[in-house]
């Protein structure tokens, strides 16, 4: 039987508050992370992603206490990322209650970290987050440090390498679409479907129910991540699931 598609709210956290911007810029306050986590847990989200979006840029560790408090108070899988640089950092997050850990900048800097983490904790715990921006000459380029640094690395090639090094899942964000609410980059999702066998979480651009449906009809998108449309109460998790169910997508109802 096909696996149910997952609906995943994302908490981008900066200085202890949930924030949301457009194309990683112009951040606005979107609430308290613990309060938001409670809401999404109660609404029936399949997972929750918690990203400390300035930890790597500021050279500090992820906010351990906030992660621990969040994990203690929700009953859905929690993925955390931001400021994860070593195997020990990942160990601390799993001990704090995370079910999965997302690595981004550190994986680019030390690709073997993916393999080390997968061998130590299992591939199912390792999510490689990839922030990509379209190139004018075609294709996509990987950015790190919260979208601040261009790497020159081809995004699709990096997705294949992350898979080969042992990642269990890819969280792929279109920086061009982030916060715009104009829809996911379907071209990018199609290309990923041709290149990798890993589950892909589609991120960047969700603004309508139809956008979520479109992304999930692309074969490799096993989950859709959204922030603005949930944080600002445009739709609820249950409204999303009912819409997708009505259009033939398998989802999990609580």
Q: Any idea what the CATH superfamily is called?
A: Aldolase class I
- Overall 3D form: globular
Task: Estimate nothing, just give the exact number of structural domains.
Answer: 1
Cα-atom radius of gyration: 16 Å
Which residue ranges are poorly predicted, with pLDDT under 50 across at least 5 consecutive positions? none
Number of helices: 10
Description:
This protein is α/β, with parallel strands linked by helices and 254 residues long. The chain has a single domain, classed as Aldolase class I (TIM Barrel), CATH 3.20.20. 34% of the residues lie in helices and 28% in strands. The protein contains ten helices and twelve strands. The protein has helices spanning 33-43, 64-73, 87-95, 105-109, 112-121, 155-164, 186-195, 209-216, 228-231, 237-246; strands at residues 6-14, 17-22, 25-31, 48-52, 78-81, 100-103, 126-134, 140-144, 149-154, 169-174, 200-203, 221-226. An eight-stranded parallel β-barrel has the order 1-4-5-6-7-10-11-12, surrounded by seven helices. Helix 1 (33-43) runs parallel beside helix 2. The radius of gyration is 16 Å and the shape is globular. The mean pLDDT is 89.
